[in-house]
């Protein structure tokens, strides 16, 4: 067997272990009874260690070196590039640091739950301080040339730097803060009719029909429910979506559309790359661009609902009296809120911006963790015009920092920016997207995305892919023009 073949076989072992973990994780978040938690944590831990050990064993590196001379096809060369990157990321962090972070996460999670319940930030501050210290050490191990944040962000978005994020946010801030302010001076949109006690079976049926209509393939996937919607999968033939049913009917609809965007990206990877590291999305930012494209540009558009509102009204008769314009304005209501995950399309990035700036300031020592609540509140007042009444709905609002997920928030905004940039390229080739959406005809749109983005898997780097698909590097101009046009029309600005 050649070294390349041996390497492939090793990667297949790693893939199988990771697939088992992913199935366990999906099950845990969907169907597992509470009593399964302890054993599941144990099983997950063991599989995670086995996967990490198999991948980072010195044999993998040795095979990789030998395989370089054997790689002939472009696919093989791309595979080796991707494996080298993954191996670099997996081996640069010392095991002791990884273990310390894992242990601290467990403690930090409990402290965070308690601190949020009792609105007691000082209780959480010492573990958070330690978590940021670990992030600093991780960055030093991973290496960077300009900004400490570069090393952390690169793990999620290859090649992206703090300077890229800064430039993006400066452009977003300059346009979005005044736009949000102008909207806040307009009369409030009434979206009260979207709240109710909606039948769960009807929501499940309707959202499945919706994601099937845009092209999610149920022969190679399914949709279930989870408290926090996500998409996962373990081969191109088996991609799982989740959604949730809340009093706001948009939770299920847009949650499903969002996850289906992720899911169609995964289903679109070439089957020949299945079970290798070339399969799947190229980065968190590009992945998010697809979920946001289907959720917002398609799913929150007027043409889309001209086709689907009658179906929604048939499924939920309480919505029958509302016309398309009223419905369209309601699903696009802009209202600065405290919680990122509930934010509308327009204010969403401002939440991410707050996170990015605070993470940078803490990592570089400009801000002490104990001063975080004041800094958080000041930025919410400045960017969103609102101030959290408690830290529980302020800097303690979500789980990410307790897990040590520091350095990836900008990928959410990169996804928003790239969604419009890619859509504008698509529209150059398919100018009649509005007509297609109004006819419920999604094959040309999905086919284009499939050809240009999904079928590329991880073959290119994210920056190469964006350049190839849109002809330029990431650029907030398309996004800002798109948002300004959409919301100026809705709010009569
Ligand atoms: Zn997403």
Précis, in short:
The protein is mainly alpha-helical and 493 residues long. The chain has 20 helices and 3 strands.
| Overall outline | globular
Spell the H/E element sequence.
HHHHHHHHHEEEHHHHHHHHHHH
- On the 0 to 100 scale, the average pLDDT is 95
Overall strand count: 3
Q: Under the CATH scheme, which class of the largest domain?
A: Mainly Alpha
Separation of the first and last Cα atoms: 67 Å
Number of domains: 2
Low-confidence parts:
none
Structure class: mainly alpha
With strands numbered from the N-terminus, the spatial order across the biggest sheet is 1-3-2
* CATH third-tier fold name of the largest domain: Neurolysin, domain 3
Radius of gyration from the alpha-carbon trace, in angstroms: 23 Å
Number of helices: 20
The percentage helix is 55-70%
The largest sheet, given as strand count, sense and whether it forms a barrel, is:
3 strands, mixed
Percent in strands? under 5%
State the CATH architecture of the largest domain: Orthogonal Bundle
Give a list of the ligands.
Answer: zinc ion
Describe this structure in words.
This protein is mostly helical. The protein folds into two domains: 116 residues, no CATH class; 329 residues, Neurolysin, domain 3. It is built from 20 helices and three strands. Helix 8 packs parallel to helix 20 and helix 12 crosses helix 13. The N and C termini lie far apart (67 Å). The structure holds zinc ion. Zinc ion binds next to helix 10 and helix 11.
